[in-house]
Amino acid sequence: MSADASPGSARRARSEQTNATDEGPDAVRALEFYCGVGGLHFSLLRARPNGDARVVGAFDINPNACDVYEANFGTRPIANSLSAVPAAKLDAFNSSLWLMSPPCQPFTRQGSQRDASDARSESFLRLLDVLPALARKPSYLLVENVVGFETSETRELMLTTLERNGFSHREFILTPRMFGVPYSRPRYFCAAKRRGLPWADGDDVVAERTVRRAPPRASLSHPKHWVPRGYEDDLEQAEPTEATVPRLKREDGQTAAQAAAAAKARHRNSAPDGGDDASAREGSSRTSRTYGVASLRGFLESTSDASWSEHEVSIAELRKARLSVDAVLPGDRKCNCFTKSYGKFTKGTGSFLVESAFDFKAWDPLGPEPPKRAREEASVRPSVDAADGDDAGAARARDAEHTRPPRTRYFSPREVANIHSFPATFAFPDRITKAQRFALLGNSLSVACVAPLLEYLLNDAGEE
Question: How many CB atoms lie within 10 A of CB 247?
Answer without folding.
Answer: 24
